[in-house]
Amino acid sequence: MQELIATVGEGKVVTNPATIDNYRRDRANDPDAGTPIAVVRATSSEDVQAAIRFAASHAIPVVARGAGSGLSGGSSAVDGGIILSLENMRDIIIDPLTRTAVVQPGALNAEVKAAAAEHGLWYPPDPSSFEFCSIGGNVATNAGGLCCVKYGVTADYVLGMKVVLADGRQVQLGGTQVKDVAGLNLTQLFIGSEGTLGVITEATLRLVPAQRPPTTLVATFSSLDDATDAILAVTSTMRPSMLEFMDNYTINAVEDLTRMGLEREAAAMLIVQSDEPAELAAQEIEQIQALCHRYDATDVFHTSDAEEAEAIIVARRMAIPAVEQNGTLLLEDVGVPLPQLGELVRGIDEISQLRDVPIAVIAHAGDGNTHPLLVVDPTDAEQQQRAQRAYGDVMDLAVQLGGTITGEHGVGRLKQPWLVNSIGEDALELNHRIKRALDPQNILNPGAVFAPTDFVANE
Amino acid sequence: MQELIATVGEGKVVTNPATIDNYRRDRANDPDAGTPIAVVRATSSEDVQAAIRFAASHAIPVVARGAGSGLSGGSSAVDGGIILSLENMRDIIIDPLTRTAVVQPGALNAEVKAAAAEHGLWYPPDPSSFEFCSIGGNVATNAGGLCCVKYGVTADYVLGMKVVLADGRQVQLGGTQVKDVAGLNLTQLFIGSEGTLGVITEATLRLVPAQRPPTTLVATFSSLDDATDAILAVTSTMRPSMLEFMDNYTINAVEDLTRMGLEREAAAMLIVQSDEPAELAAQEIEQIQALCHRYDATDVFHTSDAEEAEAIIVARRMAIPAVEQNGTLLLEDVGVPLPQLGELVRGIDEISQLRDVPIAVIAHAGDGNTHPLLVVDPTDAEQQQRAQRAYGDVMDLAVQLGGTITGEHGVGRLKQPWLVNSIGEDALELNHRIKRALDPQNILNPGAVFAPTDFVANE
Fold it and tell me: What is the ipTM of this complex?
């Protein structure tokens, strides 16, 4: 420990148990999170390198952590390991000439958006947590969000990065150009690798011109099938810049909290935006409205007023905290091809009844990515067990429907047991080969994405 | 050989030397291409698996090949190896509901575009060779094109793939969804891997709504600096859907061939398109015109007439064959950050004078990707040697300017010696580790991207 303190500096190494405790879990509240021996609060890539070199020489696990907003336990602490916090590395440099941002991992997504906006530019990826999640975590999980249906995910905006490898070396991958095919695409390999291959110390992000003010449409439906049919009709014929879904449980939870006048009887509510130029947006919204009516929407409303629209979006963003009022949440993040969305939503309802666990469903419906929220009474141990089974059932269902166990939150520790079913044994074995090639000691975020035991036999 | 014929079927194995000779080289005309023992013309992924299993069991090199339109020698034959031709695997299935295409590797880019267009959809990536290059090669090189400045590269449109590994197993990677973060992003790792990690037998491609008819602007400049300044002014303030550059040498070569009335005295010509909705396109083109005038354009002209525009684009597409009339070409594919484009173009001119080799420059200027074309007299051995030096000089210059040795053609065999300078030793070593992990025998396209000797010591 003295060795570590000597290298990175006393002020940056936390060994006080009370402070350490704040760094043991992300927002997934992993009950199995371990206790690290120290937290290193890096202020430079040299600190990151020093911490990883120390960890490598002692074969100690290193779990990198940004803002701690992860939802899959990807940054749960590991017993005897180091938490490497990047929260204090948050420089942002915007280059308007090349429309790029060079960003340290601790910078918040919202800070990058704001810095870009000062130059009339836009960093599109918008996880619901954008106000308090950091870019390092966004890149490490390939975070999604609401605008992805039209604008893609984090990976689509990362041109290059600096990453510290398992032996402490820092390498530069990619650059500032859209086109660069010199060697394997390692930039993309590290995106979404959840800290298992290296620690990202800088990302070069692509920016685009500011988004046009959108027009927002809200539609309610008295049947789930109508709602999912309308979603498919919209996504297969138009290009909304947002297409969000809330089910009856969620609508009521949000209404309980906000009293904003949502239709409590509705089976589902869709929030759709078009950010095309005014005339085209009007056409697009009109067509979407017609499709909603064709699928028997009970109420359709649209607005170009920014404040009115923002109130609606805030309702959507409040969905998780609103549902959380009713119990402890187990968050899912399953995705399916859009023609299977109806079957997924109906199947989740069946699982909820079978396991006797309320499941609220919110979804980035336009890209098939859903967030079923299992609502568990923290004092009911038996229900917790049923919820664990339901949690697996939902993932199994998504895989059966040709989908994925995680669209944007990452596998982390909570979904790791289901990874093999999601991608198959051969693809998992390929993952293992790459993990072994890049982190032969398995010190980088062990237990996340891959089972700790996956690497024992081969060492 | 009998074993191979027995497995994949006699009709699919070519051993006739005259026919084999047609498969030894791609469009790079690699003088060092070897002579394979056979060409396997696969008609299914089972054929691909059988060929690779055969190769693996005998430790024989396998070079996959699509339409043979590669420009870096990525599919040059290897002595004693097998050429695995995918030209007969060309199924295309469009799913308009999910706006995806499931495509076999031999399907031509133009065929995918046409199949998508039947459903009002668009597959954007548009290498200049789109009429005769195949999707497998596009994915294997992460091919670019003209529209990338606004619409991104091949990688941005690949959601999933089937790939046959070095041991003959076929794995499915990714799926049909934009959001999927289950495990490492192996789909993206295989994109641009130039056949060194596996052979792609199917790709799932994302399609988007049909492009609006563009407005096209042509501007000529009497100085290179003015032209590159105008490019930077346009790309840093607008979002053209195309921004192409031709230098004086190229303009004259095209004019020699077409007699279409290009301005022979111009130092450079820009071709710019906007595909925004009519009113916005008119505004955008007007602004671009104003910027061109600000940088002293000698002539600016624009049209919304499709035929007139097509004639201009054809001129751009004919640039390489036109320059080729003047000698044998050595094609470069260097890219730089846009603020360095002027320095690159001036530096290339200096290299041309220093080495006494004509170098024509065409560029996808909007994304900083240039194609300097070294024009060599095939009967002048001394000039050929000077051209080889100039070829390296241009890549060295791009790297010095913070750019890449290859933006979209791939490293192949021709640029392999320069890869280490482009990405650095540490990144190259990471590449090697992944290559070894996935192809421990180094049978997949040995000598492409990486030096054959890179893997000898470790076996």
Answer: 0.96
d(CA A69, CA A80): 22
Query: pLDDT band for position A267 (50/70/90)?
Result: very high
Q: Which two tokens stand for residue A365?
A: 């419906």
Domains of chain A: 2-85 (3.30.43.10), 92-209 (3.30.465.10), 215-400 (3.40.462.10)
Per-residue pLDDT tens over the stretch A243-260: 999 999 999 999 999 999
Closest residue by Cα to residue A200 from A107, A331, A309? A107
Range A119-133 average pLDDT = 97
In the sheet with B158-164, reading across from the earlier edge strand, the strands are B92-95, B100-103, B199-206, B158-164, B170-174
Residue pLDDT, tens place only, B145-181: 999 999 999 999 999 999 999 999 999 999 999 999 9
* Residue B72 and residue B411 in contact, taking contact as beta carbons nearer than 8 Å: yes
Write down the mean pLDDT value for chain A. 96
- pLDDT value at position B456? 66
Task: Indicate the pLDDT class of residue B458, thresholds 50, 70 and 90.
Answer: very low
Name chain B contacts of A369, Cβ cutoff 8 Å. 177, 179
On the question of pLDDT at B417 being above 80, the answer is yes
Taking an 8 Å cut-off on Cβ atoms, the answer to whether A184 and B192 are in contact is yes
- The answer to whether A431 faces chain B, any CB pair under 8 Å, is yes
The answer, for A197 touching chain B at a CB cutoff of 8 Å, is yes
Mutation choice for A interface testing from B138, B180, B458 by most A CBs within 10 A:
B180
Taking CB atoms and an 8 Å limit, are A185 and B182 in contact across chains? no
